[in-house]
Write a structure and sequence with these properties.
Layout (H helix, E strand, L loop, with lengths): L2 H4 L30 E12 L13 E7 L5 E6 L13 E4 L5 E5 L13 E6 L5 E5 L6 E4 L5 E5 L17 E7 L4 E6 L5 E6 L5 E5 L18 H17 L17 E6 L4 E6 L4 E6 L4 E6 L17 E6 L7 E6 L4 E6 L5 E5 L12 E6 L5 E5 L5 E16 L2
Antiparallel strand pairs: 1-24, 2-3, 3-4, 4-5, 6-7, 7-8, 8-9, 10-11, 11-12, 12-13, 14-15, 15-16, 16-17, 18-19, 19-20, 20-21, 22-23, 23-24
Length: 405
Amino acid sequence: MNSKRNLWLSAAIVLVAGGAFVMAGSHWASATPPRPASKVEVPKFVVDPSWPHIPNGWTLGQVSSAASDTDGNIWIVHRTRTVKPGVKTGPPVMEFDPAGNYIQGWGGQSGDGYTWPSTEHGITVDYKGNVWISGNGNDDQILKFTKDGKFLMQIGRAAQKKTNADTTSLWRPADVFVYPKTNEIFVADGYGNKRVIVFDAETGAYKRMWGAFGNTPMDDPPRPPALTGEAARAAAAEEEANRTLATGFDPKDPGPAQFVPPVHGIKVANDGLVYVADRGGKRVQVFTTDGKYMTQVWIDRWCLVAGGGCNNGNTAASVAFSPDPGQRFLYVASRSPARIWVFDRKTLQALDSFGRPGIAPGEFDVLHHMTTDNKGNLYTSEVEDGRRVQKFVFKGRVSITVPVS
């Protein structure tokens, strides 16, 4: 834990549920005329600043992802290579019980038949108890293990051909999710490619793929020759001017026809709808498991690189669901604005949001992936300087007033 975070350790538990008065793709607007409103119930969360209990004097590296299993235990994957030399750290894969007690850990080394990623990125635990890892460094593979770290399967290999058309290779995959009804693994592939690709979770056999709006995923065209001298300076000035002027957007514009890397998060709901966090595209798109496009919702679409300190302009980093049978609520982690949106999953109406940039409990410093457990608690991971996993304890539902869309 770095010194700047120590200044906040005595902070009181942060109450993070509150009313959200804007849609997820809009600015705050004090001059906006009053709109019809209605009462809705939303989840109420309180951050637990003492969770988890890291043993042995270990320091976490960048915590890139978190996942829950059927027992309610929480698994994280963190980047041990980002810990400073001489600082003690634990294995990259760690398992904690609901109280935050450390259970076990493993990983970090390549073995017989598999290569450990140079930069750990995603983790999920499937309905059979298998643990899946993805990497986004110079890595083109996903790995499948048992809970005790026994290697089972690798899909994709580093240094293979990198193209959106390839059915056996990946290119810096960001996230994975196993859908129990079909025993298929859905991959957000991701940082190099810009597609969803699906494999059989038992054999690794390719099944299908798709891009944004269900389109065929396409590679970028070859880059033109690099400009130099005065031409390069003029092009840079024009690009900066365009970024500065691009402070608005056409609400009727559906956005790019391809995903905008990184395609960062993916989960499949109980009803078979696939939710894809298109982080670079500032949106979540919804599909059937066969890749038929259904709808999309913008996530802080106003957030631009030149738009008022919104970091790198990426927003939709991860999705999660409430654990009720109908999965009534959809949660979306918005990276640069450092907040979590709460949606009605069926209507995609924005109901609430919480969080802000910072290092205090309940704040976010480079919000990355998240998960929910079987009790409705929410867990978030942070990279860069954040380097932590936070638990937001579910405290039931509260009634708030939201605008009628």
